[in-house]
Design a protein that fits this description.
The protein has 168 residues and is mainly α. The protein has one domain: Up-down Bundle (Ferritin). It is built from seven helices and two strands. The protein is globular, with a radius of gyration of 16 Å.
Length: 168
């Protein structure tokens, strides 16, 4: 896997520390309690870990001369819309474009992408002709995901925290 400045989670304590940091940011949104932001925390961690796993799978397939088809295409991968750009991992033409667009745009643009494009796209993957088993799992995970409530600012501020740890 390409070398990055991520820290590998090696213990329950390190995982707790990262999640607590994300929760601290999410709590700033004025929600009454953890039950109001844990769903977002969960599906965002799911997408983050999926992206890292698929990057690893792609490198393994390339190493033996095989083609790897990711489960998600641009702009729905974590690396496209949420992670700080690492152009070593992406097509140079796509690198950071969606992230930059969402970071520089209004909060409404971010919420519109997540609620109006990302979540519906992920829910609908199981209906895609030739959907893979992984795409069907992604679709099932997102079948019960509600729209992200406002405000978006704490969520946008938490995105870098998700990106700087590694599970692999």
């Amino acid at each position: 896997m390409a070398k990055t400045n991520r820290r590998k989670i090696t213990s329950p304590q390190s995982l707790n520390s990262y999640i607590k940091g994300i929760c601290d940011i999410m709590r700033r949104s004025g929600r009454a309690g953890a039950l109001q932001y844990v769903p977002e925390l969960t599906w965002m961690l799911f997408l983050r870990i999926l992206d890292e796993k698929e990057q690893q799978d792609e490198e393994q397939e390339k190493a033996v001369g095989k083609y790897f088809e990711p489960s998600l295409q641009y702009p729905y991968r974590w690396q496209d819309w949420a992670a700080p750009p690492d152009c070593r991992l992406q097509n140079a033409a796509e690198c950071g474009l969606k992230r930059k667009e969402l970071q520089e745009g209004t909060l409404g643009a971010f919420m519109s992408f997540v609620n109006g494009e990302l979540i519906p796209h992920l829910r609908g993957l199981k209906n895609k002709p030739g959907a893979t088993a992984r795409q069907r799992v992604i679709s099932e995970v997102f079948s019960s995901v509600e729209k992200m409530p406002k405000p978006a600012l704490p969520i946008k501020q938490a995105l870098p925290r998700y990106s700087f740890f590694s599970t692999l």
